[in-house]
Amino acid sequence: MPDQISTDSPMPDTSGYTLLSPVVALHCSGASWRQWEALQEMFCDGAPVILPQFSGPEVLKKGFADRIFTLADEAAPIISELQRLGRPAHLVGHSYGGGVALHIARNHPDLVESLCLYEPTAFNLLKFSHPADQTLAREIETLSNSIQTALSEEADLYAAQTFTDFWGGLGALQALSDRKRTAMLDWIAKAPLDFRALLQEPAGRTLRSDLHVTLIMGQYTQPQTRRITELLVEEITGAVVHEIAGANHLGPFIFHDRVMALVADHIRKAELIFELRYL
């Protein structure tokens, strides 16, 4: 792992701060745009903070049950929004949202000013890596197949429990509020499409060398996401890595304030670097 590790980050004071570049924050699978709602409150002056909503199971009615749903499909409306903004944006992403953010940064580098990612699930990096990493990718394929099998047998509750227990630990589904549990059950049919899109993403271009990148992970993350972070650090010169003590993949929810503080700090530093570069 890299030598730039932090286990704590105080909440920065953003009052009076004028955001110079737009922020586009992308939520994880099974969640909603509200995951990053606090960013709109923290950066209420200047450029906009945009919180897209990813597609849900409705895409199954658009033929994606018969053809592969890709990150390009997911990213298309976000790319259109970025193009309308007229200047590069800070991309923030968690899990699947981080995978989509990486897709955009690799394929449309002119639209991205910086990246701040919490455990991006770029499983394709594992498939193109060493044999041990390919084994980690196959474990994800097995997980996705288990969920798909459960869905095909109309065992939606089991499918949702399999998904949430993997990321949040045993009992994660039961720990959700009734509202969030219902939302997860309504969404779970999309899970295999998300997994497949992440696994089948092409190798893509190398990330821009001058991109300011912050990677955040939990102390108790899954081996897949820890290894993906390591691979990204090998690729990105100068990437800053923060490890949150006691956190797992669901850190942005359980350690909400800590993660928000790190994201806000990343944005302010990225804007300072941008200003200094063009003085």
Write a brief structural summary.
By secondary structure, the chain is of the alpha/beta class.
Report the span from N to C terminus: 34 Å
Helix content: 40-55%
For the largest beta sheet, what order do the strands appear in spatially? 1-7-6-5-4-2-3
Gyration radius, in Å: 18 Å
Report the order of strands and helices.
Answer: EEHEHEHEHHHHHHEHEHH
CATH topology of the domain at 5-123 and 205-277: Rossmann fold
CATH C-level category of the domain at 5-123 and 205-277: Alpha Beta
Question: What is the 3D shape?
Answer: globular
CATH architecture title of the domain at 5-123 and 205-277: 3-Layer(aba) Sandwich
Beta-strand segment tally: 7
Instruction: Tell me the strand percentage band.
Output: 5-15%
- Poorly predicted sequence stretches spanning 5 or more consecutive residues: 1-8
Residue-averaged pLDDT:
91
Summarize the main sheet: 7 strands, parallel
Structural class: alpha/beta
Number of helical regions = 12
Tell me what you see in this structure.
This protein is 48% helix and 12% strand. The protein is of the alpha/beta class. It has a seven-stranded parallel beta sheet with strand order 1-7-6-5-4-2-3, with helices on both faces. Helix 5 packs antiparallel against helix 9 (191-200).
